[in-house]
Give the backbone structure.
Amino acid sequence: MNSLVCTGLLSVFVSVFLLSGSCWSHPARAEIYAYTASNGAVNLSNVPADSRYSILVNAPVGGAAAVQASQLTVRKKALYDHVVGEVAKTYGLDSALLHAVITVESSYREKVVSKKGAVGLMQLMPATARHYGVADPLDPVQNLHGGAKHLRYLLKMFNNDVSLALAAYNSGEAAVAKYGNRIPSYSETMNYVPRVLGFYRKYQRQAF
């Protein structure tokens, strides 16, 4: 059973990233709460059911800058629809999942390099890029192939549990294994997984 409990969570992340024409003088905030159960399962909710929950994410939502960034991401996603579809088909992945990872990792910025050294559309670390034969991780097509290979490997490792594969993509498979094949209780990872899942569901719906 998936250890991630998303009570009302999807609606929050969809609302965070849906395009809006409105600009607020005081942006709304998206609040996500979490607690870790005795069996190690991480529980997430936008409506804390009881006192066990503590705030995990309290991020500003909306405003002109957020709307502009979302519009840019939508336009760039359209530019990559074909190549992402081809790469996904090559590795037996859902293109909506690849798009969701790209959206959260880089917002389709091909040349972005993180403070930790992760590069390109799918934010490949140098060692990961080398492992999958990516000669130039700043090349978007090579980067996509490397990221897709890594994601396929993680899905196979975790028996197609998408949440665990995403957690491993963010924090490493060793971290997921350390936590007993559960989502590690790192704030970044607990934020990352539902964000990607939110986009994944959104892109799946758009495909129909």
The helical segments are 9-17, 64-90, 95-106, 126-131, 140-157, 162-171, 173-178, 187-206. DSSP finds eight helices and four strands in the chain.
